Amino acid sequence: MSSPETVRPRAATSGGNIPITLACALYDRMQALYTGEVKPDGIDLTFRVEDFPRKLFDHAMAVQEFDVCEMSSSDYITRVSSRQCPFVALPVFPSKMFRHGMIAINKRSGIRTPKDLEGKRVGVMRYTMTAAVWQRGHLQNDYGVDLSTIHWVEGSINSPGSHGVPTIIPPGTSFEINDSGKSLSQLLAEGGVDATIGTHLPDSRRTSTDVVRLFPDFHEVEKAYYKRTGIFPIMHLIAIKRDVYDKNPFIAQSLYRGFCESKQAALVRMRNYSALRFMLPWMPAELDELDEVFGDDPWTYGLDEARTNLGTLMTYMVQQGMLKATIPVEDLFVSVS
């Protein structure tokens, strides 16, 4: 892993502040922490940017270089379940995303509906990645797909080889590693796999009219899902090295408040109509829809948010053989009150 960028120099620690290094992608909700506009009480924070989450997750688990870092929800839950987790977590969710729109198919395979995935070869970037857990959970629970009939092919979507450290596959899963020397995108276009799931769409969508989304109206599908369930799927959470937390437990509350303040600053900036903050020409219309669907806070943190959201994720992980039983959500996080 290449070293994440050190974002900004900090003044010398004063007043006994605890030096903490945070590694995270530079999301809008993190920007005020990045610039120093928000300074968590009692902490001298160094923000290191890593915009490729899988590299960060694998590196953080293997080397534990960072005091605080963005972490895959499914990876963290699996480690907690096995009682082999060197981290504790905050109910802060830097990444949320609906994933219906990230399922691609080859029309020549005869797939027209989710049920048509049964009996097919489906490429998956990483079997145990959080996005794939959500996608399989939607397919099984919302569309009645029998996942046991699917043969999974694991590998990177748009390049040959693997996507991060290979996973431990639940027993009984029909599974193979893509060692063809081709990307899953190439295999999908050629018919070597019938569909793909994960966090990326295949590049072959741009070169083959046969490669399309399973849900072409994914925007409406995802919006309807949220209105029905209240779930905006959590992908990542914030993890703290256990030994760092044990030495300075106050940092949990201080960091949580800092993350909340930074998110609020991003919401204020996003709603500044004097100039478009992002390269989205019709962002005012998007914000109107955001208000209509989500209300005042589209990016909720806290235990209440986690109970239904991660509770559902853990139910899917049990169904998919990744957990023996769900874990009380309260056991996943340290106190921030």
Report on this structure.
- Helix 4 (130-143) packs across helix 10.
- The protein contains ten helices and twelve strands.
- It has 337 residues and is an alpha/beta fold.
- It is globular, with a radius of gyration of 21 Å.
- The strands form two sheets. The chain has a six-stranded mixed sheet. A six-stranded mixed sheet has the order 9-8-7-10-6-11.
Strand order of the largest sheet: 1-3-2-4-12-5
Q: State the end-to-end CA separation.
A: 35 Å
Mean model confidence by pLDDT: 92
Largest sheet, in brief, is:
6 strands, mixed
Q: Return Rg in Å.
A: 21 Å
The low-pLDDT segments are 1-14
Helix/strand-derived category reads: alpha/beta
Helix content percent band: 25-40%
Number of helices: 10
Could you say which overall geometry the principal axes of the C-alpha atoms support?
globular
Element order, helices and strands? EEHEHEHEEEHEEHEEHEHHHH
Beta-strand share of residues: 15-25%
Number of strands: 12
Name the descriptors.
337 residues, disordered N terminus, alpha/beta, 12 strands, 6-stranded mixed beta sheet, globular
Task: Write a concise synopsis of the structure shown.
This protein is α/β, with parallel strands linked by helices.
